[in-house]
Amino acid sequence: MNKYIVSVIVPAYNEEKKIAGVLKSLVTSSLIDELIVVNDGSSDKTLSIIRKFKKIKLINLKKNHGKSYAIVKGIKKSKGDIIVFIDADLTGFNDSHIKKLINPLIAGKNDFAIGYPNDLKADKLFLPLSGERAYFKKDLAPHLKNMSEKGYGLELYLNYIFRNKKMKLFPLDNVKTTLKYEKQSYDIVAKLFLVESFDILSEILKQQNPVSYLLKSYLYSFYIKKPKKNNNQIDKLIKYIKSNLLQKI
What is the number of other CB atoms lying within 10 angstroms of the CB of residue 249? Predict the structure, then answer.
């Protein structure tokens, strides 16, 4: 029997087109002990859709505070030993993916796990920013204050503070993310693009050594420390980083 309590946190902002499918797969899972959905000030029908599902612990934020704030709110309300983050805009997500996220932690082989939708092709350049993750709550607890302020720079921050931990990285077979313009109006897409870009860029630039931070939170753990095959498009970049930048850090 699993000795760990598993809490899943789903942050949602204007996800009326996809969130029902995600929640249907999660509420029926025997692997999940607690499902927390954080409505982050949605202005569409997201909240009313969430309320149709039973066995969900709802946190309803009146204003939009950003992804990291919503996730930290969920963590603080959770009772789980293992915390799993799941985005609200996935298709094809099911129990097998939850199992692949939590099993490396339960088995004691890894400190955290990241699954990336396998529609992220083109050398999977975005896999370090994937939102499908599992961590031990005790490992996240000391960082919650900082996490809440990261916005869409959350994944970079988590990559950085866990850079020396044992990571399980794997593709989520048959899972796809929905492009923003496919699910939201263009004015909201434009707003989110600017917010996400600003959050990520500001997270990098406010560091004392932005280049070092970028390497260690994005490239190092995913492409240099454990290089992946078939990443031809970034081979030259990695070679340059190894020979010119890493020596200076």
Answer: 12
